[in-house]
Design goal:
40% helix; alpha/beta; binds magnesium ion; Nucleotidyltransferase, domain 5; 10 helices; 18% strand; binds adenosine-5'-triphosphate; globular
Amino acid sequence: MTKKITFLGIETSCDETAASVIRENDKGTADILSNIVSSQISEHKKFGGVVPELAARAHLENIDYIIKAALNESKVSLKEIDGIAATAGPGLIVCLTVGLNIGKSIAAFLNKPFVAVNHLEGHALSPGLENYIKFPYLLLLISGGHSQFLIVKDVNQYEQLGTTIDDALGEAFDKTAKMLDLGYPGGPSVEKASKMGDKNFFKLPEPIINKAGCNLSFAGLKTAVLRESKKINGNEKLKFSLAASFQNTINKILYKKTKIAIEMFKKKINTSNVNLVVAGGVAANISIRDNLKKLSKEIGFTTIYPNLEFCGDNAAMIAWAGIQRFKKNLLNKIDVEAKSRWPLDENAPYMKGPGLKL
Ligand SMILES: Nc1ncnc2c1ncn2[C@@H]1O[C@H](COP(=O)(O)OP(=O)(O)OP(=O)(O)O)[C@@H](O)[C@H]1O
Ligand SMILES: [Mg+2]
């Protein structure tokens, strides 16, 4: 029997301080021995968004305790761990540095392998924690900072098919929640409010819906929500209907753009068999899941979602990406530094800013 690899993962890229111990199993997935996530929601709530300095301070205060808790719960000693993985980007440098430095220190002290993980690769591979998925697959990554269609060819091999040219989808949810005074964090509160409104009440724009392939755009939609929100005047019913209309418009955009991405994937890979993995914080949205399941039945592909606990930021997905990279000998030296920007497909064109041609 081959030895099963066990990793400690550490995540501090934004407003979650997280540590996890996982071990490979015979099914080609992972046994989650511990998965501790300390969210800073209460700290950032009054500001309606993440305040970098506050986030970094909270990471510093919590990280030792969270790592100890993850080790205790896993019943695995540091000696038994085969390697340490910590998120090194993209994200807020002041936050990333906390988890990265402690990860590097533990690895150096114990003389164990260290992996600097791209947070987006963590999301991209996260469904593998529970489902064995063969490469290549199509990834729709929808999170607080990113919205992209990518071909996941293998660990460390990504081809971007489309991306947002302005806001990320999670950001659009968060800003909509703020404009409608629905509370923080925005995504879940918009989802909840949507259930009480009429999704067809407001007619909202679907930016670049008929052009630019599977690239996405949400800024015009956000501006339209702002315009309509000024007409609400405290009417709760209208407020819920605006949230519902926003979510319905998102669903229409994702339906059309995913259809295009599926066709692109089929052509590039020369296959009719498509597995669509939807990952990142916004993948927790049930209405978006149901909408894409409907599309999958209509045009014939398989949808795979991570369990809800692995959609938002967590360290199990970082440990899992660490194990996959370790197995390919993609290790990092102890002088590796945090990166605020770190695209999965380094060759993809930069799709933001003035002068962009669609
Ligand atoms: N049920 C939901 N519906 C819609 N959006 C949601 C839901 N739950 C969470 N979100 C959104 O997911 C985002 C957080 O996801 P995640 O933690 O992956 O983002 P991030 O780590 O900040 O960004 P990135 O992964 O791009 O670096 C937030 O914008 C949040 O509002
Ligand atoms: Mg994330």
